[in-house]
Amino acid sequence: MTVLIIGASVAGVRTAQALRQRGFQEHITLLGEEPHQPYDKPALSKEVLAAHLQGEPPSLLTREQAEELGVSLLLGTKAIGLDLNERSVLTDSGERLSFQRLVVATGVTPRTIPGAEALDGIHTLRTIDDALALRAELDRGPRVVVIGAGFIGAEFASAARSRGLDVCVVEAQRTPMAHLFGERVGRMLAGIHAVNGVAVESGVGVGRFTDDGRGRVTGVVLADGRTLPADLVVVGIGARPATDWLKSCELDLADGVVCDSHLRAVGVGMAGVYAAGDVARRHHPLYGKPLRIEHWTNAGEHADIIAADVLGLQAPRPQVPYVWSDQYGRRIQIAGRPGEGRLGALRGGVEDGEMTAVYVDEAGRALGAVVVDDPRSFMACRKAIASGAQTGGLGLLETV
User: Fold this and answer.
1) Per the confidence metrics, is the pTM higher than 0.85?
2) In which band, very low, low, confident or very high, does the pLDDT at 270 lie, cut at 50, 70 and 90?
3) Does domain 3-108+239-310 have CATH number 3.50.50.60?
């Protein structure tokens, strides 16, 4: 049996490793679009951009490790088509790769703004090449505008501010992150920017960019007519599943590759086709509905699920979603699905150093939590979410 994995980021690499760890002995090919050895992406918006570190992202799989695992690495090769009848993937080099089992782990593609591609100095952040280009830009000491106050935008703002640069974050929502955490906690998290000297323009969109007449950005024109001067602009307004190469086949591509709880692609003729990581829209057994979760930890969980299914083993126990973000020396941790509940209890605030917010359902059971700089509280919240416990046992000072 041959297993072909398309995508050499964490989901793809971990799937190859999980297959070997569980005893899979047959051929595995791992195809990656980037020419670089597989690397871990969370560091791109953190250590790689830090002025005092100048680091490289941690390796996920070296050539030597791939050889030890018996995994064939094809790097710098892009999948451009899938033929489910012939059970093959077409690459940009014209080669057809046959498979018996296929794992789609192509991740996501950053969204951008019309006109951004035409100007130098406007970037997105998804790959090591993106991060190295941004590091070189930061070394020049530019005025920085970040469009989007999500985690990528916030982490980049933090990295730029750590160099003493003037930074402004532009967010279309009236309160950053309110769609995920509500107005109250969203305001608290946005306050981390203000405490660290970063300006936040919220409740306003971006109209267009100005340039110097030679193709270099000089400013961001807001929808209300104001112009923010900028030598460097980073667009962090989310991402879409990288599924364009699959549009000519019969896969269900409704916001990612639609899968069952075992990550098997749904539909007739999809036997042996899986999806993993950011690109997978899985029927989540804890929530009873399809979810596409862009979390690093989610990719590792998917790898174990697929490996177990390929080998006919029992599926691992489903995990509560978890993600973290490092900003201005603070650690923000999120467990569960806060946006599916209401704010039920709150303690502290970012100005106090620690904060815990718990989100509950109508019966008061914990559904999600946001915790800043309090690992002990976070572990208690995560256990409460996993067990569906009431928030009263968490010892929070304020119930809302």
Assistant:
1) yes
2) confident
3) yes
